[in-house]
UniProtKB/TrEMBL annotation, chain A:
Molecular-function GO terms, alphabetical: carbohydrate binding
The organism's taxonomic lineage, starting at the top: Bacteria, Bacillati, Actinomycetota, Actinomycetes, Micromonosporales
SUPFAM superfamilies assigned to the protein according to its UniProt record, in alphabetical order: Periplasmic binding protein-like I
Protein name (Swiss-Prot/TrEMBL): Rhamnose transport system substrate-binding protein
Signal peptide stretch: 1-18
UniProtKB/TrEMBL annotation, chain B:
Name the record gives this protein: Ribose transport system permease protein
GO cellular component: plasma membrane
GO molecular function: transmembrane transporter activity
Entry's transmembrane regions: 23-44, 51-71, 102-126, 132-151, 172-194, 225-248, 260-289, 309-326
Signal peptide: none
Protein's UniProt keywords contain Plastid: no
Keyword Membrane: yes
UniProt membrane topology term: Multi-pass membrane protein
InterPro entries documented for this protein: ABC_transp_permease
Organism: Actinoplanes philippinensis
Top-rank taxon, per record: Bacteria
Keywords attached to this entry: Cell membrane, Membrane, Transmembrane, Transmembrane helix
Amino acid sequence: MRPRFTAAVVMATTAAIALTGCTKKNDTDTAASGDAGKKTYKVAFVPKLQGVPYFEAMNAGGKEAAAALGNVEWLYQGPTQADAAAQADIVRSYIQQKVDALIVAPNDPDSMAPLLQQAKDAGIHVATADTDAPSSVREVFVNQATAEGIGQGLTDSLLTAMGGKGKYAIVSCGQTAENLNSWIEVQKAYTKEKYPEAEIVDIVYAGEDQAKATQMATDLMNAHPDLTGLVGECTSSAPGVAQAVKDAGKIGKVFTVGLGTPQAMKPYLQDKSSTAAILWDVENLGYLTAWAGAQIAQNKPFAATNNVSSELSAVAYTEANKMLLLGPALAITDKNVDQFNY
Amino acid sequence: MTAVAEAKIKRRVLPSPVTGQEIVLVGVIVVLWAALAVSTPAFLTAGSIQPLLVATAPVALVGVAMTIVIITGGIDVSVGGAIMVCSVLTAKALVGTDGVSLGVAVLLSIAAGGLLGLVNGVLIAYGRVHAIIITFGTANLFMFLGLRIFGSGTVNGIPATLAFFGRGPDGRTLGIPHAFLITLVITAVAWWYLRHTAGGRHFFAIGGDAQAARLAGVRVQRRVLLAYVLTGVLVGLASCFVIAQGTSTLDQSVGSGKELAVIAAVVIGGTSIMGGRGSVLGTLLGALLVQSVASGVTQLGWRSQLSDLFVGIFIIVAVGADLLRARARRSR
């Protein structure tokens, strides 16, 4: 059954590409006719998954950057499920279209690395954003926040609510997701170091399934009756763990934090089943991604500090690991949740 | 004819009320629950069993209809896509100040599901193409439709209208989760219908030999159509359970892979994938076993992917047992 199903997804995705590809082309034809003669660089971004608010907000930021820069054509296409094979097909299609810069948020960094090599061999500038493929030929990684920033932000928010001690568990998503795993490593080390009276009792993986994340959080609370904290490590499990606490009637007894998008977390932040959502300005991340794509497409080097836009006036670049850093992580609570429209 | 003789004939014609597979499943679940009760602090408490039953409900409910479809010799791999369409439609109708009420939401979801089931049913009953091909095609169509309804975002701020089917305190009466109770009643009705009515027996006849069934006067096409429409209707109701179990946000991963979970429950329940034999009771037990394993793995603190391994083993054992039984019947 499984290969058939995967085939189904691939078919659906290919059909989707064919359809949206056509409309996109028409859009840009009209746009490009305005400033003929000037070279436009095609910057393509392949998210892990299309249609979720997180990547749609990145897309909005990317479009905004393309409009501001003037010489960039922003292309955006992702799989309809967070599936490495479906994502690879989209990357291949962009290689065939000979875009100028190809930026990927890989579902599986290891299987993406050879594809990025293939793109480079075809003369395409490659980069990663949101999630890195460290062992690949990518020219730059646009990092939303350091693993330390996220991991410590999550731990500090949670442990402050838990009173600095107690048992907590993590509901993560994809088991091979590089960024989630790097944050979890920081959470483990940082908890041990800063909160010696706190303990991570379990880490489970729910995939992108909200209902499954909620059920797993419920099971964790049952398995550990003295559990006082839960972390939802991605945008589907962050509301999931909060919902589980709410359903179990344990608001105020079990605290949750998570990597959640503001609008999805709003009801939970308001009823206190979630203490805080740790995130970053996703639209700015999209903006920075498009800007970085334009830079590498034009073979322009990065400075140690880059003035990207009025909101991103000092973006740090480290040569050693070829990484652009958006900035510090952002804690979203019931106080500031209304500032974000995604 | 005396009452005794009549009873004798009935015994000969009717299959035994429970199959071997169901007894085995009950045994496995009892042993598993007992083992989990001993090895984890809180498995056998209301706070753990209630959510487990709620999580079992949508898969078991769609499984009832899937069992009937598989008994007729068909299959429906489009239920995941259909759940996506029904859920997103219903979730969108619930959102906003003029959001619909519980009853309207359920009716809307069932109507949408029934319509999708009708598409499958008409194509399969009158198109004379095997069900796996048709539903494979419609699965993609439904997914496309679902994604179009989603637009390019999630559905946010879904109110607690459907909490009646949920995991929380509103979803229970006297400690029994409504979603599971409804599933149980529908399973019981389906069990009785399949076993004690001529219409129910016709499904088995079609799965055994459609040509022979037609010659015996069974309206094969109408029965097949009914099986797929019923699947759609139950998918519609199950979608309400799915929304209730999720968060106040619905994302497009909803329904993804559910067809496999449902077919797994049916196969583990002892229904022959070749058609002609099967039981809705077994399917309910199969779904319960799969969810118990998933919860058990989490509560024991084992690696999450081990539950996939166990489900895989159950499927292979169940299919193997079915083949052995078929061989035993032939040699008799």
